[in-house]
Design brief:
heterodimer, A: mainly beta, four-stranded antiparallel sheet, 11 strands, 48% strand, globular, B: mainly beta, six-stranded mixed sheet, five-stranded antiparallel sheet
Amino acid sequence: NAGVMQNPRHLVRRRGQEARLRCSPMKGHSHVYWYRQLPEEGLKFMVYLQKENIIDESGMPKERFSAEFPKEGPSILRIQQVVRGDSAAYFCASSPLGTGGTDTQYFGPGTRLTVL
Amino acid sequence: KQEVTQIPAALSVPEGENLVLNCSFTDSAIYNLQWFRQDPGKGLTSLLLIQSSQREQTSGRLNASLDKSSGRSTLYIAASQPGDSATYLCAVRPSQGAQKLVFGQGTRLTINP
């Protein structure tokens, strides 16, 4: 069973361009979470999605950021008009259940975004 | 608002030593607490998960304890090895209904051969 897959692993964008980050959850997992890790900081929750639904986006910046998890295909985190402050590692995690006593989130390797 | 703090930020010890990493959280009403390991340029690997009703969990040379009332958790690593060098992250799940994990900033551990 392949783990959580993210691509690209490294992404370089110039200011003003768009960044698209992809996450394929583990097989059988229908819940996806996105976290951002700024340099020298801990991971910060951004958004939690189930198939075709955004459940909790309380950590998403109000502008330029959006996320989706379509019925078919990977989850996408989209950043429009990137700025230097968006440079960070973006991690995706997945879980089989949204609730449950021992529900563990499994993390992907991350996408490292650099904005020039 | 739940906040998680890890002390120290960095730790360097000789191989073979036992060591303790600390994690504290401001709101004791948590659902569970998890310790992760992060290697440079890689994702997170879950090490141990402690439910709020539990006091400790063990896996091999690792032992994690939880004291909810005081808002503290420790990760004990016995007989440390160079391969244990990594950043260790503590994360709290605030409630059963909340899916987000609240992370500390991590402790960067270096084991010197």
